[in-house]
Amino acid sequence: MDKKGQMILDIVPKQTAITIAAAIVIFSAAVLVIFWAVRVYKRKKMGFLDDLEGHEFEYFCAKLLKESGFIEVEVTKGSGDYGVDILAEKDGVTYAVQCKCYTDPVGVKAVQEAYAGRDYYDRMVGAVMTNQYFTAPAVNAARKLKILLWDRGYLENMMEEK
User: What's the Cα-to-Cα distance from 66 to each of 27, 62, 63, 156, 158, rounded to whole Å?
Assistant: First the structure.
């Protein structure tokens, strides 16, 4: 084989390697763009929750619970509700739910309210439902008091499943 033929053989594998590397970079960039777009879409989709007033959020949560298979879903009266905004049942289990539409993480007080309300309404399960997330002390208190914590991510999953 002459020098020219050998040079062509040497160049082809390098060009193939460069093409494969470029394809990997483009594919990786596309995956990142799609991942970012999905996150932005989810944030916008959930963003309306942050604009709701307290009572509006309670009714939204009640509707979401109904759409998720809960029955006998009832929003309690605004004042004197003993720390519970929604009473519901699912699969024979009764729930007392405290709803918190906040701009900051939800603290221990909401967990205490759900705990008190669960006992007052003689329900099997107490839960706090929020458009935000929970502080570490709230998570610890909920674990100790056996209160369910349904945060923004949990609500997002409920909305996707309906």
Answer: 41, 6, 5, 15, 11
